[in-house]
Amino acid sequence: MSKFDQRVTLKISRPRNPALLYGAILFVLACIVGEMLARTPFVQARIPYQAYGTNHTQLELQLNILDKFVRENGAPDCFIFGSSQAFREVDPIAFARAYEAAGGEHVTCYNFGVTGSQIWTTSILNKILIQKYHPRLVVIGTSFLDYTEGREFQIDERFKENDWLEFQTSKFTLGGWLTEHSYAWRALTLLSYAAPYGMRYSEVLREAHKWDGEIAESGFAISQKSIDPSVPVETGFVKNLQQEFGNFGVSERNLSALEETIAFSQQA
Question: Residue 81 pairs with which residues in a beta bridge?
Answer without folding.
Answer: 112, 140
